Amino acid sequence: MHKSILFGLATVALFSAPVQADTLEDVKKAGMLKCGVSTGLAGFSQKDEKGSWSGLDVDVCRGVAAAVLGDASKVTYKPLTAKERFTALQSGEIDILSRNTTWTHTRDTSLGLNFAGTIYYDGTGFMVSKKLGVKSALELDGAAACIQAGTSTELAIADYFRENNMKYKVVTFDTSDQTRTGLESGRCDFLVSDQSQLYALRIGLKDPAGAIVLPEVISKEPLGPVVRQGDDKWFNITKWVVNASIEGEFQGVTSENADELAKSGKPGQKRLLGTEGDLGEKLGLSKDWALNVIKQVGNYSESFERNVGQDSPLKIKRGLNAQWNNGGILYSPAMR
Amino acid sequence: MQEFKVLPDLPAPVKTVGPVAWLKNNLFSSWLNGLATIVVVAILAKLLPGLLDWLFFSANWTGTSQDACTKEGACWVFINSWSKQFFYGSYPDGQLWRINLVLAMLVGIITLSIFISKEYRNKIVVPLFLLLPFIGLIILDGSLIGLQVVSTDLWGGFTLNVLLAAASIIVAFPLGALWALGRRSEMPLARSISIILIEFFRGVPVLALFFMGSVMLPLFFPEGTTVDKLVRVWIVLVLFMSGYMAEVFRGGFQAIPKGQYEAADAIGLGYWQKNALIIFPQVIKVSMPNILATFVMLFKNTTFLLIIGIFEMLSTAQTALTNSNWLGGHSTEAYLFVGLVFWVCCYSMSLIATSIERKLNTDHRN
Amino acid sequence: MTEDQRAVSSKHAFYNNPKNRALIYQLLLLIGIGYFFYTIVSNTMANMEARGIKSGFGFLQATSGFDILMSLIPFDATYSYGRTFVVGLLNTILVSIIGIILATIIGFLIGVAHFSPNWLIKKLATAYVETFRNIPLLLQVFFWYFAVLAALPTAARDSVSIGEAVFLNVKGLFIPKLIGESGSSIVYLSIAVALIAILFLRRWAKKRQELTGAQFPVLWTGLGIFFGLPLLATLITGIPFGLEYPIMGRFSFDGGITVIPELMALALALSIYTGAFIAEAVRAGIQAVPHGQTEAARSLGMKESKIMSLIVVPQAMRVITPLLNSEYQSLVKNSTLATAIGYPDLFTVFVGTTLNQTGQAIEIVFMTMAVYFVINMIISFVMNRFNKSTQITAR
Fold first, then answer.
1. Which residues constitute the signal peptide according to the record (chain A) (predicted)?
2. Which partner for C205 in A78, B176, C216, C310 could form a disulfide, CB atoms 3.0-4.6 Å apart?
């Protein structure tokens, strides 16, 4: 009996580890980046039948691993539910949280966390069945809404319907996949979610063409990676990995031509890829940090198209998430 | 004188033996029974053909992707493609032998416990049982014995259900016994603490306990220490299970005749000797069916871990259903498959429990 | 302890005295427990401060800002988080009561069916118990909700309907609502009067039977009073009730009472699952009644129905009641699975949404645990009282 208790304690010890304030050192020492992702969200973080992770959120983890460790595959994924995500980051269980998390004032200021940029500009939208003949969200008075429980969407929709003096019934589901089932079975008349998710959910319908996404976007949902407050070095690294991938697209650096451009590109490209200047060293990383990111993960455009864009089943258009000179609002600060 | 001839035996009347009699006695013994039989048969006849057709005849069996599912029936291709995930989670392909080894050891010990002679059972099987989960953990984790380290986020699927349930009950066994002893103790403090623990962990929904493990427990550890989520869940499961085991043991203790205690006292055994050598072996014996029933409950409850995002089997099924290459409604197949796996395991355990119960039932009732 | 008398002797060392030893053990235990809680509390305080989490129950007064699908009391996004707690609690109680009633009915029917002379029914009862008992409840909840109820008609006009008054579709079961007009209070009063009358009738009949042995048909008279008196009152007051029928609106039916499918699925899954366990308990209970009891009753010339109700069931209840107690408790605890399909019970509303919006993990999880604990204590109390009444009373 006593033996088993001892063993128990030993096991707890085996699986627990102290956290230090210097995340960069910890990650380098472990040789692995611990990244918190969602338990399954098409296009953002999903696991395939071989157990490997992909998605826009996952690419942030891979990018940071490539920049810090030189190898994008050195990531330990910790799938988290919406409820435990911040606790996991605060307690040091993960080094970075890249889990479809909306950047809000409250979260940024009162949870001891820092948002390291935006990787996807999203907004709450509506999807209805074409058969319903609804053209605008304002025609939905008295209808039932399918929503994922425990999300900021629940608050956004309550505000919207109250503002417009309309009534609605809220049918909540535990996962976003279940909201799709709810819409399909007719349990609710419309589905409310982040627009990116609406597209992901639409392709899952038996008849994707039978559903339309209404024009209204009722809230701002900028999604981005989150790190612990008080570790500025790590905060900077995450922030600039996100920027490097955006800047990579702007400068025309892709995973294919990155090696070549590092040698013979324009000065701006060379500075980004580390053959000129010392941007990497200022972050406490190697010179070729951004080269690794773009070579192994791709620039923003490659990552976007592969996971949620034209090369994926989701087929989401760039929209707001295009470069600033292309009709979007993506804008990386200057790389110099 | 007329000679008596032995007439040949007549066959038994149709009304008492043979299939017709069986039908009459068992299905049509009264008009009410006959009606019930007809209704039941009619319902079965209406439901079964469609069900069998969907399950087998027009089901899709071969292929590797969703496109292979062209026929009307179930898409078993989906289950087939994800079967590795369903059973092993994301555990690295080359390392699967480690899981199989641990499972084989578990099966081995169970077989051993059935065939080994009684005198060695307690000396060999019991320690093996107690050690197995820890050996299993060490093998699966790999960091202590120089194998490739497989972090717990890669563990998953049905392995995790089995592993968590087994690792929990084995620690809960001594802990539950301790609480049960505490509840019977004459020391007021020990008794009240035991009662509080037992009633708390039995009276609170296991889902609430899981939430405690996932969002509250990290706050309980010293600042700067993190404990793996799986370990936190394990701690919660152990405590939950201990509450139930304690009550099972309490029933067992009550079933032991008072003479056993008095005899142990009479030969001068101390408290721990008395309980460990005389009472407890008997308690385990009489409560074995209940222990198994409790284990089945725990095993089924491991699916609740889905709610807090642990990749056990049901949760893996959910993940598979959201994968963008497999969207298109395979939920019925997934739930049926998971249900079948659990049913086979739980049903065989309940069969074992029944047979033990029958074996133990040596008194003269009935 | 029997050794006490021998052990108390000044010759023996201090620690050999069982009383002293017990004291020392308990002191050590107290210190251990105290240290344990001290560590946890101080760790938690330090962690919460480091992460800037506020503690306290002030959040209960704050505006919730979200809506809830089903509420037995008025609720919308302008009400407080405290109100969400009450809404969730009432929904939990509702599904528990429905579940307990249905599970008991199913359990007793299947349990008795196990003793049916009909082979097919006997086998079906066994199959029922072995199937539903051995499949995880969460899976069953999913099955009823996502596979069965989701397959109901989608459009309101395709609904399954009974007499254009009751409608069933994927959005729920729509039934007419009884609306009391002036004079309806007299009818309500008559129901109360009927109940009290039945109580007195029972007491009188029991006393008469003990004195004279003459039996009085309490059940039938009771039923007569229960339905007759309110009916009479209704007729006298000129039927002071109106029915509000569900009417097809733009998206769904409006008016009447809506039973949401989440409630139906959860109640179904809970009662079918728990029913299987209760059936086992009933079977065990009936089996525990010695066969001689039935035979003795038969030889006294009792009718088969009387044997069941007067001889077998009362004795079986002694075995069944304690088992029922624990089954009811686990049903209430299992109702938390509502969160998996979004039935707005205490767990979904409070631990789900409210916890996520406020981040007050410790307060919310403890409040919820306490609620379930108290509900189970109440069930235990009631069932123990009932259990006492079924035990043999020595005269």
1. 1-21
2. C216
Domain assignment of residue A7, yes or no: no
User: Residue C80, by phi and psi: left (phi above 0), alpha (psi -120 to 50) or beta?
Assistant: beta
- Strands A221-223 and A168-173 turn out to be unpaired
Q: Tokens 């409006």 identify what position?
A: C254
Q: Which candidate, C194, C195, C187, places its Cα nearest to that of C239?
A: C187
Do C26 and B187 touch, CB atoms closer than 8 A?
yes
Cβ-defined contact of B228 to A15 (cutoff 8 Å) = yes
Average pLDDT over residues B300-322: 86
H or E, element range at C298 = helix C291-299
Where helices occur in chain B by DSSP H, the ranges are 18-26, 31-52, 76-88, 96-115, 118-120, 126-141, 157-184, 188-203, 206-211, 217-220, 229-255, 258-266, 271-273, 280-301, 313-322, 331-360
SS3 A325: helix
Phi, psi angles (nearest 5°) of residue B38: -60, -45
CA distance A77 to A40: 12
Beta bridge partners of A172: A147
**Residues in Cβ contact with B299 at an 8 Å cutoff, skipping those fewer than 6 apart:** B161, B162, B165, B342, B345, B346, B349
* Count of residues making up chain B: 366
Helix (H, G, I), strand (E, B) or coil at A29: helix
Query: Collapsing DSSP states into helix, strand and coil, what is residue A129?
Result: strand
Give CA–CA dist A192/A198, Å, rounded: 8
- Residue B122 covered by a domain: no
Instruction: Place A21 in a pLDDT band, splitting at 50, 70 and 90.
Output: low
As a residue count, chain C comes to 395
Does one domain contain both B155 and B44? no
Taking CA–CA distances from A43, the nearest residue in chain B reads B324
My answer on whether B249 and B293 are in the same domain is: yes
pLDDT, tens digit, 9 for 90 and up, residues C190-221: 888 889 988 898 888 888 888 887 777 878 88
Distance between CA C221 and CA A79 in Å, rounded? 63
Residues 3-62 of chain A with CB under 8 A from chain B are 3-5, 7-8, 10-12, 14-20, 32, 39-43, 46-52
Check CB contact under 8 Å for B26 and C119: yes
Question: What's CA C204's distance to the chain center, in Å?
Answer: 32
Closest CA to A112 of A235, A231, A233, A228: A228
Out of C43, C138, C329, closest to residue B220 by CB: C43
C81-176+245-390 topology per CATH: MetI-like fold (1.10.3720)
Backbone dihedral region for residue B60 (phi beyond 0: left; psi -120 to 50: alpha; all else: beta): beta
For Cα atoms B288, B290, B294, give the angle at the middle one, nearest 5 degrees: 115
Q: What is the domain range of residue B44?
A: 13-55
Q: Is the pLDDT of residue A3 over 50?
A: no
Check: CB of residue B140 under 8 Å from CB of residue B134: no
Q: What is the DSSP string of B66-108?
A: GGG--SSS-BHHHHHHHHHHHHHBT--GGGHHHHHHHHHHHHH
Q: Chains with ≥3 Cβ pairs under 8 A against B?
A: A, C
**Domain total of chain A:** 2
**C201, exposed or middle or buried, with CB in 10 Å at 0-12, 13-18, 19+?**
middle
Q: How many CB atoms lie within 10 A of CB B93?
A: 10
pLDDT averaged over every residue in chain C: 85
Site of tokens 């259903």: B321
Q: Which residues of A touch C150 (CB under 8 A)?
A: 181-182, 184-185, 187
CB-based contact C133 B346, cutoff 8 Å: yes
Kindly tell me if the per-residue pLDDT of B14 is higher than 80.
no
Checking if the pLDDT of C240 tops 70, the result is: yes
Q: Are residues A18 and A116 in the same domain?
A: yes
State whether A98 and A227 are in the same domain. Answer: yes
- Rounded to an integer, the average pLDDT of C56-68 is 86
